[in-house]
Amino acid sequence: MTAFPPLHARVAEVTERIAQRSRDSRARYLERIARAAEHGPSRRRLGCANQAHGFASCSSDDKAMLRQGDGPSLGIVTAYNDMLSAHQPYEHFPELIRAAAREAGGVAMVAGGVPAMCDGVTQGEAGMELSLFSRDTIALATAIALSHQTFDAAVFLGICDKIVPGLVIGALSFGHLPAVFIPAGPMPSGLPNQEKARIRQLYAEGKVGRDALLDAESRSYHSPGTCTFYGTANTNQMLMEIMGLHLPGASFVNPGTPLRDALTRTATARALGITALGDQYTPIGEVLDERAFVNALVGLNATGGSTNHTLHLVAMAAAAGIRLDWNDFSDLAAVVPLLARVYPNGSADVNHFHAAGGVAFVIGELLRAGLLHRDVRTVWGAGLDAYLREPWLGDTGLAWRDAPTHSGDTDVLRGVADPFDASGGLTLLNGDLGRAIIKTSAVSPDRHVIEAPARVFHSQEALQDAFRAGLLQGDFIAVVRFQGPRANGMPELHKLMPPLGVLQDRGQKIALVTDGRLSGASGKVPAAIHVTPEAADGGPIARIRDGDLLRLDATTGRLDVLVDPNEWNARSPVTLPGSGQHEGVGRELFGLFRAAVGPADAGASVFGMPSA
Q: Quick check: 423 and 345 in contact, CB under 8 A?
């Protein structure tokens, strides 16, 4: 038996302050889900007509089981569509799950579907302005799916950027139900990520044409499965595993394989085995406690995960009555070493990461350094020890064996004794412009401090136009504002990275300051993102003028405007005319979301803390 050290003092301190900060809201939440659970399965209290509607479409055997009320009923909430490569494999999952449920003595039904958009398709387009709001829409759709109150547990089929956080938020609104998240896995490796990035930059410089660019992109994103870079989608999968909502080792098994199907069947049986009908009742509202969220923050830092989770984890925690703050992310990052280099933080993809040891190796290293809470609840049982094992198919079917304790490729994955960096690379910035996040794990250390005049833009298209016109000369900090949640839904601004990367490679000192998002593909250009208060709220970023000297210092955590204080304080924030900017592509339907959404550091959510 491995001996594990005591919990690291910083991890313990951050956990305790989260618990104290959340004491009242968490207590109200737990009381609410306890009330929902105290009378047993809800379907037994439904009227006869209600029940008849609920099983009218079932087979005779399933109907008989539901009529008697003895076998568990499993709801499937699915984000399946053919548009997302990551979600296309889910087409056949309900059939697998229904069969596995019958074998386990239960019944499974698709409770409902949730929307699932592809950020890769909408990058730089108007549809990206719906992306972040789709998370809260998914949470609402999940609540509707489960509102029939006929289920004893639920399984959730979702992978990508806003989809998993939305499903978690919705599942926590039914926190008395057990919830198992079932991944579909990444596509096999395609064109190497460094080559893809090289061709993107050549295209930005006008050195190759659209045919070459489309060919490279098609060879990168080429088959069913999750995109293989370590963006938000794959960070989601790591988080679901380290938070105990996946089966051990389930995150990065490729789709369409016997092992993937075996994991899906076993996840179904496990969901049915942890309902209130048995003696292993494991409701999601109790699984996702303060310790689970601290484990998530540690895992995010250790793997160099997506900056989107500085929004999503805050919103997810709030749904469980837990109050996270950006200081929690930053303070943990200071003591959590970077153990993985996966694109855009390196050249490898998630298949290489998984082959080198994957999530189980990371969990083992973090446990042996005292950086994770070991004594958490998971859907697989008590404690994280089971997540030190990996699944495989033996002669008798699915089994688990000890995961490797040494990295299979130290260019991709390393232990705590020899990390890629002493810090996880997520830093909170404070200063004259408010608060912001910077991810430095892919940024060269000589660019962690940039002092340069501002060039101000009100869209990423305007910056691209200036780049193409040859107007971006010398050192500068690009300020791209009115990109926050209230302004336009806080779209990702990936199309900024190729031109800024070109200018940086030419020797110019470049940085980005924005109230928008960049996600897991933040890349090599220093970028202060999620600036809050945002420009549309009259935040200080709306007072910056072309030529103002700015200083971004990731080493001290500062974001400052080096302008005479009297002049700065006398300025009024710029306002952006709004005529027509929220019309088309469905944007006009989300006016209520833009009006109600909270700030970035509160999760950019339209929901508040759960009430009593």
A: no
For the chain, the straight-line distance linking the first and the last C-alpha, in angstroms and rounded, comes to: 43
Q: Where are the domains of the chain?
A: 11-21+58-188+223-402, 189-222, 426-602
Q: How far apart are CA 29 and CA 571, in angstroms?
A: 44
Residues of the chain scoring pLDDT < 70: 1-2, 40-44, 52, 64, 69, 520-522, 578-580, 610-612
Q: For residue 43, give the H/E element and its range.
A: none
The Cα 313–Cα 559 span in angstroms is 24
Prediction pTM value: 0.94
CB atoms within 10 A of CB 53: 13
Structure tokens at 283: 């409701």
**What are the beta bridge partners of residue 378?**
381
Residue 477 carries which side chain, given as an amino acid letter? I
- Please answer whether residues 251 and 80 qualify as being in contact, where contact means their C-beta atoms are separated by less than 8 angstroms: no
Cα dihedral sign, 210-212-217-222: positive
Closest CA relative to residue 557, chosen from 353, 276, 334: 334
H or E element in which residue 113 lies: strand 107-113
3-class DSSP assignment, residue 434: strand
Residues 426-602: name the CATH superfamily. Answer: IlvD/EDD C-terminal domain-like (3.50.30.80)
Show the tokens assigned to 539.
Answer: 């935040």
Residue 78, by phi and psi: left (phi above 0), alpha (psi -120 to 50) or beta? beta
Strands (E), 200-305: none
Six token digits for residue 197: 């990035």
CA 440, distance to chain mean position in Å, is 18
304: tokens are 């160099």
Query: Using CA atoms in the order 118, 123, 125, 131, what is the torsion angle rounded to 10 degrees?
Result: 50
What are the pLDDT digits (tens) for 446-457? Answer: 999 999 999 999
Tokens 């202060």, residue? 528
